[in-house]
Amino acid sequence: MSRPGRAMSVAALASLPVLPLGWFVGLQAHPPWIPAAYLGYFLVVIAVPGTMFWRRLTGGTGWFAVDAVLGTTFGLACEVLIYALGRWLDIPLAALVMPALALGLFLAVPSSTRSTKPTPWWSVAGVMVVAGIVAAWFVRVGSRVIPLDGPAALRPNSDSPFQLSLAAELTHHFPPQVPYVAGEPLAYHWMAYSHIASAHWITGIELDVLTQRVVPFAFLLLTTLGAAAVGMVLTGRAVAAPIAAGLTVLAGDLGPWGWTVTHTLYHDSPLSMGQMISTTQAFSTVLMLPLIAVTAQLLRRPPGQTRQQLAGLFLVAGILISVLSVSKATALPVYAAGLAAAWIYLTIKARRLNLRALVLGVTVAASYAFNFFVVLRGETNGMEFKPAGTYRSMLDGMVRGIDPSVPAGRSVLLIVTAAVVIGWLMPAVGALLIRRRLPRDPMVVMLLAGLIGAVAAASLLYQYSQAQVFFVRTAFIYGVLLATWGLASLERKQYLVVGPALAIGVAAISMGRAQTKTLIRDCQDTGCLDRIFSAPLIAALILTAAGIVVLGVSIRKRSLRLWAIITVSALLGLTVSPTVVSLRQFAFPPQTAYDSIAPGGIEAARFIRRQSGPDDLIATNIHCHAPTGPRCHTGSFWIPGYAERRVLVEGWSYTAKANDVHTSTEASYGPFWDQEKLKVNDEAFTAPTREVLDRLRTQYGVRWLLADDRVNPVPEELEKLAELRFQSGTVHVYQLYPPRVGGTGSTTP
């Protein structure tokens, strides 16, 4: 290697400490052994083996840094598959075999890796700067979204305990069931929790810390690094890496209104509450990136590709597709839409069927069918065909609290629909600047079709909890890559106008949001609503147009491409992430006004965990998110999360049977489908008898009772029929006596 090459490598390496430093800074609220243990496990079990797998199977990309990032994300896919198999065989530490498998593959398969070229120091340094921003955001915002201790930890919404309960289920059981309704099959995408469970077994870190801190932070960093790596694969230019990383973190959608700053209905960037509280979405984004990269290597047909490399590429793609299918139900359809368009494009161009895209398509179809019929068991979870239902629901959420006599007219719905759709598609304007290096390159078509298909799916489908919006959240990275590709296609001198043009868009959208001065609830007529919704959007677009004209006229040597660069950059600036400008609001997210987790409940659940086996079953009188009230929101899931034991019946929201409805009210407040089981369960806490407790133990397998005094006072008879083992706050824990054989008496265990 020449001296300049060595100097570039040294400079690049000098910036790499930002990554581990940011990792420890981001998790500074925890004991140092926690980030150190996860980092060590991640490097030894996932990153190094995954990189070896990737380079041996795919032949590499030509940049070692890119291979290391994409290999690490591929290693995650391998780990969760191995863990699921190991958990089924009762070998929860199975992922520890990955280094040995990687070494075996390294020795058995001859190297076909391309000669590597150094990544410029400024490219690596730019990505590290963005990684530092992610770490700073996580310290300021992400680590505060879900409190882990103190009084605030007792007041989460229903999502974080739900995530924790599924992680606990995958820690001890496979195939998984609904942990808060024992015996109910888990018709949900659960692959992300396999990673959390594997990390828990290997590192010993508590599940709540992994689920709500360590793993989300790791996925944020991996998404940023992965986007940078794929940007280089698509463009062949090192400048794409910092651009892709920056857009992934700082770009979002067109959010022209002030209240969109804290509105989580928009897909936004990885720096958002939606990404923090949805482990499945974050995990699917991480896996989508190497899949896009390996798809590019397959469909572009680079010269010199051997049959061995082709087989390896299809194997890598097959693993990623199969894992992705069980990671997020909205992920594969977006990829499939893009792949179908690329196949049609290649077939028409070559005037013959493109077999590579066809094989990928068949793999996608088989994996999705397996997910739908085996994992999801054919359940739609309330998803239905309802055009424009997404935008009506968004508008309903925005005008909540307004006087019922002030209707939101059709004009308001059209404004909201136009703003949201344009905002979702805005990153696609980057495609106007793309200069492809390869003839008949299908990747632009694939990314553009995937993004458009996602917006179409979100526009035509509807689910009461807005699950259809996750189609667009999945496609966010497609838009980022299109914008990256366009900006990375510029000549060096042309970047001098990109910065000012981006600033025009950022300033315009910020000033547009500032136009929302009148509160929606203060409107007294529909015309007021029209002005509130249209004025910020119109102001932002007018300011952007004016800025484009002024900047363009101020440049002496103008050309059509220069005008396109200024316009595209300014429009991309309009998508600056609302999260970036709203740290104060996001740092203190709203919580419930009541303790949805019983005082002393976490300690009680962990007592049961220490004193019981993983197959022990708990019965409880807790079924509602709020302990008292006129209505029961059945979204209580925290007991199996902290106890790591299944519960006979706690809440029953977020199950396939509860979700098979048309409204959120039906899903969250509907009755339990097995009233006999619920009756026996509740009688143990309201009118306990020996017969009731014996039936709980023998028929249903219950070993423990967890009672919350806030729901109903514990009857004195219960202490005579079961052994009080623990008491904290408002919670009592009892262990059931085994029934006496041949009699009605009882014996102590």
Structure description:
The protein has 749 residues and is mainly α. Helices cover 59% and strands 4% of the residues. It has 30 helices and seven strands. The protein has helices spanning 3-15, 18-26, 33-58, 64-88, 98-108, 121-140, 159-172, 191-203, 207-235, 240-250, 273-277, 279-299, 307-325, 331-350, 355-375, 389-398, 410-425, 443-460, 470-488, 495-513, 526-553, 560-573, 583-587, 601-611, 638-643, 656-659, 664-669, 675-686, 690-698, 716-721; strands at 384-385, 461-462, 617-620, 646-647, 702-708, 722-728, 731-736. The chain has a five-stranded mixed beta sheet with strand order 4-3-5-7-6, with helices on both faces. Strand 6 (722-728) and strand 7 (731-736) form a beta hairpin. Helix 7 (159-172) crosses helix 8 (191-203). The relative contact order is 0.10. Residues 743-749 have low confidence and may be disordered.
Tell me roughly what share of residues is in helical segments.
55-70%
Mean pLDDT figure: 89
Gyration radius, rounded: 27 Å
Overall spatial form: globular
Question: What fraction of the residues are assigned to beta strands by DSSP?
Answer: under 5%
